[in-house]
Write a structure and sequence with these properties.
This protein is mainly α. It has one domain (24-266). It is built from 14 helices and no strands. It has helices at 24-31, 39-50, 52-64, 70-77, 85-102, 107-121, 127-148, 155-171, 181-193, 202-216, 222-230, 235-241, 248-265, 298-306.
């Protein structure tokens, strides 16, 4: 694809054979790359080409679980995000995909990471919370692809995903980083097991987040959106958000529908290559996507603009 208006790690661009088939040349390139040295390129190929739907779905579930982190729930509960959850969703998605597709060697990705660091600096967040958040981003997409992907991840892709996020963690000056994806999963289990009670803001945050997901859903999916997303509530989230578990048959139907879609996409996947955040529409920014430095909580962005 020519004249692509975004920055990405150097390498060839790809198109879908016949406009709807998976492109085996992408996997061939990935197999030729080093998961440490080339992790930025591999993650770009994973997010932009191979597993776009899987990564976006997994990150949606990550966002949905914000209320499960008491520290995060307390911060968000005291902010405007309970009434402006869509802006938080759009800003988060915009900034994260900026560095997923660009890495840190390209200006767009480096700017996004620096901007996220600036936003985080405005809050008192201890290292444990940063580690927990990083572990979520490490683990959730891998688990989603293992359960619902149109194909399984290769060892090269898993290693590259790990090294990519560990480098992001270093750029964010996070200490005591997990030594593997499996280690990250253990950290998360220990973290949630040690939570004694949900934040007092958890239910309001859960309701606000679910409302965002219903709002962003296409018209034909809105009647099913609440059930779909609640199907991914863990026991802890159901307690935090004060909702009952869905019937097993309902959750099984949701999971089966996702798996059926994945099977179809092995042979028929008409979504255009590559997925680029600059080409997506975000509800908050109907008149056009923001610059990196303009994404984030409005009160912080306005303060920054007022500084000489």
């Amino acid at each position: 694809m020519k004249n692509m208006n975004f920055q990405h790690p150097p390498g060839p661009d790809y198109q879908r054979p016949l406009g709807f088939m998976q492109n085996r040349a992408i996997r061939k390139e990935i197999r030729s790359l080093d998961p440490v040295k080339d992790c930025q390129r591999i993650v770009y190929l994973m997010v932009g080409y191979e597993f776009t739907r899987e990564v976006t779905s997994a990150l949606d579930i990550v966002y949905l679980g914000s209320g499960g982190n008491n520290y995060m729930a307390d911060i968000l509960g005291r902010s405007h995000y309970l009434t402006d959850g869509m802006k938080r969703y759009d800003d988060s998605r915009f900034l994260i995909f900026k560095f997923l597709e660009s890495g840190w060697d390209q200006k767009d990705g480096a700017d996004a990471i620096r901007h996220i660091n600036m936003l985080h600096s405005k809050y008192k967040i201890d290292n444990e919370q940063f580690v927990q958040a990083l572990c979520v981003f490490l683990v959730a997409p891998v688990e989603w692809i293992d359960n619902f992907g149109w194909r399984k991840l290769t060892s090269i892709e898993k290693d590259a995903w790990y090294h990519f996020w560990i480098n992001v963690g270093k750029l964010m000056e996070i200490r005591e980083l997990p030594t593997s994806i499996e280690h990250a999963a253990k950290i998360l289990k220990t973290y949630y097991r040690n939570i004694k009670a949900p934040s007092k803001y958890a239910k309001a945050l859960g309701d606000s987040t679910l409302a965002v997901y219903v709002e962003k859903s296409p018209w034909y999916f809105k009647p099913f959106a609440t059930t779909y997303y609640r199907s991914f509530y863990t026991d802890f989230l159901r307690e935090a958000y004060q909702v009952e578990d869905l019937p097993a048959a309902v959750k099984y139907s949701v999971y089966s529908g996702i798996k059926l879609n994945s099977i179809v996409r092995r042979f028929l996947s008409p979504s255009p290559f590559p997925y680029v955040i600059n080409r997506q529409s975000l509800t908050t920014y109907g008149k056009g996507l923001p610059k990196v430095q303009d994404a984030g909580p409005s009160h912080i962005i306005n303060q920054m603009k007022e500084q000489p």
